[in-house]
Every structure is written in structure tokens, then in C-alpha cells.
Amino acid sequence: MWHACLFRSAVLVILLLPLTACAWFPPEREAAYELLASWGGKGDAPGRFNEPTGIAVAGGEVFVSDARNGRIQVFDFDGRFLRQIGSAGEEPGKLGRPMNLAIARGELYVADYWNDRIEVFSLAGEYRRSIGTSGTGPGQFNAPGGVAVGKEGDLFVADFYNQRVQHLRPDGRFVRQWGETGRTGWTAGRFSYPTDVALGADGTLYVADGYNDRIQVFAPDGTFLRKWGGPFALNIHGPFRGWFATVTSVAVGPRGNIFVADFYNDRVQKFSAEGRFLTAFGSTPRGPAHSAIAVAVASDGSVFVANFDAHRVERWQQPAGGP
Question: CB of 148 within 8 A of CB of 155?
């Protein structure tokens, strides 16, 4: 009897192996993207960067967080420098370490990591307002890493050291949060240093759960929907398709697909809205590096990547099809 049970268990494991392999090591379903152009290099002159950390696109323009230079630089799609937004400093309208960006309702939203606030500018570069202060209370931040803006102007902020994502009204009034303030966790709805957020067209919230090496997804009413990244999305990092090694940025493409900056794996991974792996692409660094730190997708399907290690911006395009 014992031998029969053991035999049946072994057969079951053998039958399940292909299914497990498909789930944890998925095939590539789309053609990889090709590098069309890149620009930058290290420096503080216009068009050069010192650790670019965030990127956004709107109206044929590319907005780049130039972190160590304390500014946002704006380019056309071919990399021609257009203007600078903000400058280094601590007072309102100045930038400490700008991180991930969002563009909505004709305004640029900057997650200012060192100044513990969201800075808002016009797309032309005029300072509009600051949202949030330093702290652990509702509507306060401890190193915000990313921001998304809803259709009615509500803000969703990845509050990095506070281990939470906050939902705020346009004027900064607190609505709710996901995660437990100041405490990491790996179960659904808990975070380990969240780095960025993005919203789908229907209001679905995608969270780059940075050091948990995964994406978490929440419905417009706040309900947890799903998570992905490695086996069971349980903070198991790796270089395989669909796995991550620190997630630093998330973006939603015009067709609803999800693009994720997979920092220590030096690549961007593309998924369906449900988390099915589609393809991956990125620059091949010389030796250990951290290339893909931020990603944004234009309406024409171009994917722009902030290359942290090379201090550059890259433009990628899929040879056939699109996002």
C-alpha cells in the first residue's frame, strides 16, 4: 500500500513538472525590442546626466529625472535637448533627488526622494505646488519613489521607507493606504520598499514592489487582485523570464500591457495586464552594472528607458506589432 501511494505521488510530480516549468519559466511570446537611439553621457551640461532615475513621455517629448544634478531635462523623441525644469535645492520648486515621474492633466509630477514630497510643474517648467511633508503620518512621505495620477487628479504615491502606497486627493488629503507603515512584508498587500506605481485606463493600480522582486495589482476599489514575479511572487529573485532582481519602475503601455524595469537584471520586461510574460529587452552592460532603472511608453509604441549606469536615455521599438 505504501509503495503504491509513493508511486502515484511520483507520477503526479512528473505530470506536474511541465506545468510548473511553464508557469515559472515562461516562453517568449513576442519579438524583442530593438534599440533605435540613445543619448546622454555623464555630466552636468544640457543633454548630459548624472544618474538618470525616472522618465515620462507626453506630446512628443521625453522628460527625464537627472537625479544627482537635481533637475528634469526635456527632449524630443530624437534626443534633442529642449529645456530644463527645476534645479537643485530644498525650498519649494527645487529638487533634491527626483525619481519616477508622471504626466497628467497637463502637469508634471515629480517624486522628490530627498525632499519627501511631490513637486508639480507645468510642462513648460513653471513651478505649481508641492504635496506632502516629511514624516510617517497620513499624507506624509519618507523618500517617495514614484507617483501616478488618476483621471480626477487623485495621487497614488510609492512611499519607499514608509513601506506603503498612499492614495491622496489632488490637494494632498489622505484617502487610504496599502501596506503597514514602516514594516516590510511579503504577503499580498504588504511591501518591501515600493519604488513606483502606475494606473491602467480602468483605474487598476500596479505597484513596483521593489525589494520583494514583484508587481502587485489592486482594483480601483483597493482590493488586491494579483501579484507576479518568480515562484508565487514570494520575494524569490532571479534572472529567468518573468522573475525580477529589484523592480524600480512600472509603466502601462497604450494597449494595456505592463512594462517593468528589472534593475539588477539590466532589462525591461513586458507583460500582459494579467501578468503573462511577453518579452524582455535591454542593453548589455560591460561587466556588473545597473542599466534599466526607469521605463515609459509613448503612444506610438516607442519605449524609453533611463539607463542608470551609462547615464543615458534609450529609445526602443518592437520590429513588428507593438505594446
Answer: yes
Ranges of the chain with pLDDT below 50: 1-17, 19
d(CA 227, CA 207) in angstroms, rounded, equals 9
**Residue 38 DSSP symbol:** E
Query: Is 0.90 topped by the overall pTM?
Result: yes
Q: Is 97 helix (H, G, I), strand (E, B) or coil?
A: coil
Q: Which residues, at least 6 apart from 275, have a Cβ–Cβ distance to it below 8 Å?
A: 215, 217, 226, 227, 228, 258
pLDDT at 319: 86
How big is the chain, counted in residues? 323
Q: CA gyration radius for the chain?
A: 20
Coarse DSSP helix, strand, coil percentages of the chain, rounded to the nearest 5 percent = 10, 45, 45
Residue 163: C-alpha distances to residues 122, 160, 218 (Å): 29, 5, 16
User: What whole-number distance in Å separates Cα of residue 150 and Cα of residue 204?
Assistant: 10
Distance CA 250, CA 299 (A): 16
Tell me the DSSP string of 144-183.
EEEEEE-TTS-EEEEETTTTEEEEE-TT--EEEEESBTTB
What cell does 207 get? 505597484
What are residue 183's DSSP bridge partners?
180
Q: Tell me: the pLDDT tens digits for 191-227?
A: 999 999 999 999 999 999 999 999 999 999 999 999 9
Q: Do 296 and 52 touch, CB atoms closer than 8 A?
A: no
In a 13 Å sphere around the CA of 202, the CA atoms on its Cβ side amount to 11
Calculate the alpha carbon distances from 36 to 18, 243, 269, 274, 303 in Å. 37, 26, 18, 28, 10
What are the residues facing 263 on neighbouring strands? none
Residue 49 in contact with residue 69, Cβ under 8 Å?
Answer: yes
Cα separation, 314 vs 308, whole angstroms: 11
